[in-house]
Design a protein that fits this description.
The complex is a heterotetramer, with two copies of chain A (about 260 residues) and two copies of chain B (about 350 residues). Chain A is an all-alpha fold. Chain A has eleven helices and no strands. The two termini of chain A are about 30 Å apart. Classes of the chains: A mainly alpha (about 260), B alpha+beta (about 350).
């Protein structure tokens, strides 16, 4: 009885998530009257605005990932190895972007870097793009940090480093041959999560007035009928692909699969 | 001059002086254990030899070369850790070959050396496996092979057996010692387990509070402890009070019975001294009538019997306190029953006088 | 040298986060010409729209927390105890809301529950509120799940349950006296996180057209000068208070502090 | 009829039959150990007694009451787990009083009983502490007190010592046994450590592949193993081949030397049988001239010496293979050097004939 109940609970959860998606998928295929077709998708793909905003967001996502990885991985490695007392502080800092509303962050940026400030970033498109990327990096920080931190926690960082050193390895060899290969999966999963978050982000892009995919989605939602559903399905498919990549990356790393 | 020479080593972490003036010379090919309770500084000494810590004061020389301020990767030292520390992303063969690859040894030579090492540790067919596919004992043997592959000048073992099951721990002891003998490699072994230290080492350094209390062969350490700490930390000990009768002649009385010790006693006539007895030198006589005149024998009552297999540990109550003694199991003679009245016999030359 | 570098890196991180806030705080105090004052705050607090939207969001946050706790805690307990093979599946499901853009989720809801659907929730204010709360629960699910899961992972669930049973405890006693007291802190930290996220959320509330605090923040940002800065500072103070409560809750539970 | 009665117990998980027809009667106040390698079913038997698993077939009776299908919280059984399993949010006193509170015992009575229990485990002043403030050994003693506080009918111990350090493990053995004796509580103890089982138990059940291979007192199990598995799992064993000369008279030859066993041999004249020798029944004679005619003595060469403290384990090579033997340390006689030529003596009555 209890077993059935718990399975039922899980079924409810699945429905709760997937029903909206199925509904949207079905609707997105109904653009042509009376039959299912891919017309809505064709219409979306042909829209030059879609192409522009989507390309822009993908580029921003990639830049954010590179920026995030370069900042997070060495910092976490060093804090874990040499400044472990700073870890609670790091945890706290990286939790902030989750609890400070993005609206507040973006207002702060606008206030600080407006055209009359000492660093008028919002004055140029490129400056605003940079600001947007910084914002995205902040948004993604909790996930990137936790992913890398979990990855490094799974290996015995100090002992592996010392073992490699006693075998003649210098710092660069330690990082390149011992540490990186063992956290690559974690870094990848953090990167995919960052990608998914940036692609769907709305508040930052809208308030900084940049031509990103999120605002386009909302605009399309208000002005078109079937295309938004198609867009939503496509976005979902993309993020789903990201999820799958995370899972695959985890599976692929056979050496980290522990017995039992 | 010794092959590995530690001179007046000191190490402080902040205000905490963990190692206080530590001297040790290790001969080439010798197996020396650092034995002591946790916090005695044994691991810090090892880490200074490895280069992971820099001594506050003192010098470390290997084969005449001062390595005190060399970085760990410049010392050519092999180290095995308690936590195995195999690289999880590399196969067993790649792990063993790691040090050779870094040293720039050719692929062919590396492969040959790795094969030799895997044969040495008895895992010749495991080269293609990943660490997680091995048992703990196998992983630790691979870690040993990895440390030995680059032909280090000194092998350091940091409690390598602590993480393993009791049975594997015992069998790996002998295996490590065999390999060490075969290669003739100078080895320092850190442990808190006195049985490990005694059974594996050429010499044992018993450490306490950042100092070496005694350095000597296992037999020496066990049978002739120089300090009360060594006597109590190494092995089980019974203590008895004795009253000195003739200090120069080594004569004392225990519970009114005379006992002659083989050496003079550094105490005044009439003073009370502590005697220590190992459980294996006390003999149990079930038939009290059997004791001949002149033998020293304490009347006792059996308080506990622990059948351990080969050895039976008996606790007997005497007027001088509880005494533990060890007997070998004898298939034709079951251990004495609880409460039985017996006599405990021991000889003056088997007694340790506590300072 | 390396030490200095790493401290510098941390300092940069702090500046990166706190400079926008400090700038905003300074600006928010400058409403009265030539001197610092709390005029902007007074203006905000007196705004009836602020009172209404903020109250609405606090209510929604509390409802979301209750809903989330009731769904998540028993599910996680049961899955850990009896269906451990389902855990990877649970991890996957609870990761979904992070990678599916909120826009897509809300479009799905609107599509599924619009006025012409089989369950026209968006037809009434109360129905839309319910939908909004469901959306918030989905958004908060990853955090709530992970908090509770980590809390349950920290105790030896199975053995503690069996120990209590062998001492005569039934299921209810086990849950009430053994399990709950030991995951309370985790539940609280999940709750505070949920609160912070709901208070600052924009996309859901805006697209479902409900009078929540997020849309009010954005509206104020576009139409007022000093008030948005004051609002941002207040929101930040609130979320900061949440963070502190999380930390305090962790500290308070003295029995879970391990000596290590 | 026994106090605790397990009749024809079987347990399968899916297609995997973990326990195959297990019978055991435990007398009131008896301490019985289930000993075996991992996967032998010992823990499953214990969990069936506790009620965490339901037997596929068979019945469990306590004091005549059939409890086979009672839920764990209805059985009035005390259990101690390997992982201590103290409630981390409760103090030591609250932990110990947990079962009493659930049973509805009054606060005053609970307090008195908790104080008694804490005194019993030697931690009378620890009541206000939290589990994380205690050492592993202290936590396990509190877990024992908690299990005993509600006066359970049976006490179940599931490898309670496995998570502890070697020294504490040994001292806690004696303590648990003392407490068990004092309270006279019927106890089942599960372990994979033969020394624990032998030293603590009234009777030992040696399990293998879901069955009991032998049930008996420790002395019996060790000295008269009924099966080859028991002989090899319990204690160290040397094996020798012997040729049967006179089956009825128990006469065999080992390496050409005659040896008389005390019992007839179930084998034909001329057949080869396996003899097993415990390491403690083999005696080492350094002076081969000392051996009198008629004694059985194998010439041997010392291959390895492990100084373990009280006991010295020697490995000697003979024409019949390597033989391990145990000697007690003697302060006046260092262990024999490697390579020394010696003789190994043993008596026919100390030999186990392997089936």
């Amino acid at each position: 009885m209890k077993r059935i109940l718990s399975w039922a609970a899980i079924a409810v959860g699945v429905v709760y998530f997937f029903l909206p998606l199925v509904g949207m998928l079905e609707f997105s295929l109904k653009m042509r009257r009376g039959e299912y077709s891919l017309d809505a998708y064709r219409s979306v793909m042909g829209d030059p605005q879609f192409q522009a905003t989507f390309g822009y967001s993908v580029l921003m996502a990639c830049l954010t990932i590179v920026f995030g990885v370069l900042v997070v991985v060495p910092t976490v490695f060093w804090v874990r190895l040499k400044l472990p007392r700073l870890r609670p502080f790091m945890e706290f800092i990286t939790l902030l972007p989750l609890v400070i509303p993005p609206i507040v962050i973006v207002f702060g940026y606008i206030r600080l870097f407006n055209t009359s400030s000492w660093l008028p970033l919002t004055g140029s498109a490129l400056g605003t793009d940079f600001l947007l990327m910084c914002g995205y990096a902040v948004l993604a920080l909790p996930y990137m940090y936790r992913a890398v931190d979990t990855g490094l926690a799974a290996i015995d960082l100090r002992t592996l480093t010392e073992a490699a050193q006693s075998l003649g390895a210098g710092w660069i060899t330690v990082l390149a041959r011992v540490i990186l290969p063992n956290v690559l999966v974690a870094v990848l999963s953090g990167a995919f999560l960052t990608f998914a978050i940036v692609i769907g982000e709305y508040v930052f892009a809208a308030l900084l007035d940049r031509p990103a995919f999120g605002p386009y989605l909302v605009w399309a939602g208000g002005n078109k009928a079937y295309e938004p559903a198609a867009l939503a399905v496509m976005t979902f498919a993309l993020t789903w692909a990201c999820m799958m990549l995370i899972q695959l990356a985890t599976k692929f790393s056979k050496h980290t699969r522990m017995p039992h | 001059m010794a092959y590995l020479d530690l001179t007046a080593l000191q190490k402080s972490f902040g205000a905490n002086q963990v190692v206080k003036s530590f001297d040790l010379g290790v001969a080439k090919g010798e197996f020396v254990s650092l034995l002591g309770p946790s916090g005695c500084g044994k691991t810090t000494v090892l880490r200074m030899v490895a280069g992971f810590e820099t001594p506050t004061v003192g010098a470390i020389k290997i084969d005449g070369q001062d390595v005190t301020h060399l970085r760990p990767n410049q010392r050519n030292i092999g180290m095995v850790f308690q936590a195995y520390a195999l690289f999880p992303n590399l196969t067993v063969a790649q792990n063993v070959g790691f040090g050779l690859k870094i040293a720039g040894v050719s692929a062919a030579e590396t492969a040959a050396r790795v094969a030799d090492m895997l044969a040495l540790i008895g895992l010749p067919d495991m080269g293609a496996r990943y660490p997680f596919q091995l048992s703990g004992g196998q992983q630790q043997r691979v870690a040993l092979a990895r440390a030995l592959a680059p032909r280090p000048r000194v092998l350091l073992l940091d409690e390598p057996l602590s993480a393993l099951d009791a049975k594997i721990r015992v069998s790996l002891r002998a295996e490590i010692r065999d390999i060490q003998r075969k290669l003739g490699i100078t080895t320092i072994f850190v442990t808190h387990d006195q049985e490990e230290a005694l059974s594996m080492s050429d010499r044992v350094v018993v450490m306490n509070g950042g100092r070496a209390e005694q350095v000597g062969a296992p037999f020496e350490i066990y049978n002739h402890p120089k300090t009360r700490f060594v006597a109590q930390f190494v092995g089980t000990l019974n203590t008895l009070d004795a009253i000195v009768i003739d200090p120069a002649g080594g004569e004392v009385t225990v519970q009114g019975q005379p006992l002659r010790l083989p050496q003079p006693i550094a105490a005044l006539r009439g003073a009370t001294v502590g005697l220590a007895l190992r459980p294996e030198v006390v003999h149990l006589e079930a038939d009290t009538a059997q004791i001949s005149r002149g033998d020293f024998a304490l009347p006792a009552r059996i308080a506990a019997v622990q059948f351990l297999g080969a050895v039976i540990r008996v606790k007997a109550e005497t007027a001088a306190g509880e005494i533990s003694l060890d007997l070998f199991n004898r298939p034709d003679a079951p251990p004495p029953p609880l409460g039985a009245e017996v006599a405990l016999r021991f000889r003056g030359q088997d007694v340790i006088v506590l300072a």
